[in-house]
Amino acid sequence: MSDWLTKIPEAAREYIAGRRLDEVECIVPDIAGVARGKAMPASKFARQESFFLPNSIFLQTITGEWADNPSGAFTEPDMVLVPDHETVSAAPWTADVTLQVIHDVLDQQGNPVPVAPRNVLKRIVALYAERGWRPIVAPEMEFFLVARNIDPNQPIQPPMGRSGRRAAAKQAYSLSAVDEYGKVIDDIYDFAEAQGFEIDGILQEGGAGQVEINLAHGDPVALADEIFYFKRLIREAALRHDCFATFMAKPIEGEPGSAMHIHHSVVDAAGRNIFSDEQGRETPAFMHFIAGMQAHLPAAIALLAPYVNSYRRYVPDFAAPINLEWGRDNRTTGLRVPISGPVARRVENRLAGMDCNPYLGLAASLATGYLGLTQQDSPRAECLGDAYMSEDELPTNLGDALDLMVESDPIREVLGSEFVDVYESVKRNEYKEFLQVISPWEREHLLLNV
User: Fold this and answer.
1) For a surface tag, which of 58, 86, 379, 430 has the fewest beta carbons within 10 Å of its beta carbon?
2) Which residues cross the membrane (predicted)?
3) CA 84 – CA 107 distance, rounded (Å)
């Protein structure tokens, strides 16, 4: 066995299980969370400690265009990519025996590249560590299984189930609804097991063909890696059964959107939850964390809702909180405190869409809580009623969200000013491209009437 194979997780070693390893996929998550990098023969990977990619991969938009470089000339210097062997994972859908590995992104002096999303999340975790804290997160992933759609001009449809009927909406928590596309779910379980991932539960959500997967709580960087991998494995499982998996925030008109709810807690150096005191009561730190989210989430929404489609999820009456209220066991609030014992006391951020880059979504959410802990403000009074009736406090489009982000000095300080500038440049480019597209609604209602 090559020396590097002794450093990889047990699940990856078990996947190889004495077979000849053919290929290694060397991966970097870009601004959108798309896997960039290169594949190479395993024998070549074993002989090199790093490889190079141009820094322009972080200026590429979701459409494949290139945004302006805020720092000046577009010279595309190489970055150094070093494998993080703890992230080595199977790619069980490939024909050959293949492993994939996420790489750390460094400049040529060996410093973390500040615009790489994984480094942004590491930066936030390090801020917590400097205070003697360790953040814990538990993400929930919602997504749709949909019929194959090869014509973007046609609306998305629910998938065909094993009954021969299309998946029905309004079947939340129905086991028979999940069974309609059980073969896809079976492959998701099999792929996750091969990759060493722990699924906490799978359930049917409220939309037609909408599924939710819950992950066990843990380290933010490790869980962002898992979500990054999960998006790929879920797509591959769906393709095996003649359907697509989509993580768009709002893929089907008239259906609920897909969220990435994030549960947060913070422990001290001894592993004690700082949200609970020795008597099990809520602490001031717990309230400070909520206050930080209320104060700074508007400036972070551009990271939690990164596309024009994201804001179609923020509409009333579709089970998406569009407020910054907080409440205990209240699913109408943007910030929910679930029922739990003192050890598991946590805050659930229900604003993030599943279309966000998981590294940036977790970084932004944790950053707002961190600001609350350090500024020690108090939250508004708990919402005891229906928060859906509250006034809108969030930006309603990507342009406004970007304005709030770039104008927020605290968000710039914690996420890094260079990253904020690059992110804004990429997203302004995408927004400008979208505004040049004429929608069917405009043609239907404006063509002959205005």
Assistant:
1) 86
2) none
3) 16
Measured at the CA of 341, the angle between CA 337 and CA 343, to 5 degrees, comes to: 100
* CA 132/CA 375 separation, integer angstroms: 16
125-445 belongs to which homologous superfamily?
Glutamine synthetase/guanido kinase, catalytic domain (3.30.590.10)
Does the model's pTM come out above 0.90? yes
The domain segmentation of the chain, as residue ranges, is 3-113, 125-445
The HSE-up count of residue 37 (CA atoms within 13 Å, CB side) is 25
Burial of 339 (0-12, 13-18, 19+ CB in 10 A): exposed
